[in-house]
Structures are given as structure tokens and as C-alpha cells.
Amino acid sequence: MIIIKTPDELVAMRISGKKTATILHKVAAKIAPGVTTKELDEYAAELAREQEGRCAFFGFHGFSGHICASINEEVVHGIPGPRMIRNGDIVGIDFGLVYGGFVGDTAITVAAGEIDPEWTRLLDVTKQALHAGISKAIEGNRLSDISNAVQSVAEGAGFSVVRDFVGHGIGREMHEDPQIPNYGPAGRGPVLKAGMTLAIEPMINLGVHKTKTLKDGWTVITKDHLPSAHFEHTIAVGKETAEILTLPEQAFDG
Ligand code: MG
Known about the structure:
This protein is α+β, with helices and mostly antiparallel strands. The protein has a single domain (7-244), classed as Creatine Amidinohydrolase. It contains four helices and 15 strands. The strands form four sheets. A five-stranded antiparallel β-sheet has the order 8-7-9-14-15. A hairpin with a 6-residue loop joins β11 and β12 (220-222). The longest helix has 22 residues, at 7-28. The structure holds magnesium ion. Magnesium ion binds next to loops.
């Protein structure tokens, strides 16, 4: 069942979304060669405490991090640890915060130092694919209009769309109905209504779409070990336009 949020609930989700995004962008601004993902994780935990929010990923099915940090061929769910970021890496940070009873969920992928131009294009296209998807989150459209818009941008640029992981409804729970694939024909699935809140999150690969999970049980990597990018916003479906709930107070321009 897809939960339609009331105007008061949307007010609460705007607050939690802005806090979530502000923390993400502060953490992203620390990404640089020589920094470990554990340091990023500790910084996120500290910022969440300051905001009096709870990190949504910490302890989720036993996950040990406050963020997910996924480097290069790591698609999603990388566990923060002693790995040091190197010049030329791309680093995906995914962060969820519970505040006022509502979850915000947002992700960004940024370059550390100088990266391969093709990797820069992967980041740009993934961000464009996310926004193409968001532009379809309007009352009266069908859910898969979002999916198809994401896929068209990604594949139109010569990249591939991860199929094993999807976006999701979000609200009091981090994962609510519906699931939102990033591929598929338009015009399918539930009709969108204003007040639905969705986490749209394309994961786009430079090479093949196939992934595998490492022995740690969490870290997802590309099967061909080529890089992957991930961007995510929590949004509210609107009558005329979608509203992005996870815009930071000040954007880190990574
Ligand atoms: Mg998510």
C-alpha cells in the first residue's frame, strides 16, 4: 500500500529531508585523497548527533556504518572502514536520517582529485538520469514513467542501469511501497498521486549492469569491476511538479 502523506506529514518530511541532505553535503565536502571512509562515517555520526537525529542505516539489519560509502566499482552498501580514498577515485555516499519520526534518504557520488573524463561523464549522466526521473513524479503519471525516464537518459549516454536494486517509497519507514526500478517501459504501475513520497535512486554503471555482493554480505560491486555512480533524492509527488525534499541548506558542489 502506498501511503499518501498529509500536509502536516509533508512539513515534517521537509524538515527531516533538509537535515539529511545538509549532513550528506557536509560529509561529501570532506572527500579527498588520504581520507578514510571511517573518518567520513564518524563525521556523519557527529553531525547527526548535533541535529538530534538518528542515523537510519546504523544497525539496519546489522549494518555497522552511519553512511554507506561505495568507491569506484562498489555500487551501493559499502561499509565504512580503514580504506583510504585515493586520487582518481569516485566515492558514493548514501545517508539516511530519522528526525521527527520521518526518514530522509539521499545519496551523491563525487570525485576525489582528478578523475578519468569518462568517469566524470558517468557522474553527470547519473545525476541527469535522477532528475529526469524526478521530473516524471507528477500526479496522474504512472510509476514506471519515472523508471523509463531514468533508463532513457542512462542508456542514451551509453551506460547501463543496475537492475538488482531499486528506489522505494519512504516516510515513517525507510522502505515503504512502492519499489521503483530504474528501468522498464513507461505507462505501467500505480498512478501517482500528490503526497506520495519516494526515494528515487539510479545506480548507473560504466560497463555491464550486472552486480555481485561481496563476502561481507553488504558491499555490492559491478561484475566487470568498472565504476558505478549513485545519486538519490527523497521527493514528494506534486500536482504540477515534484518537490525535492533532500536539498541541503548549502550544496557542496562536488
Ligand atoms: Mg534509498
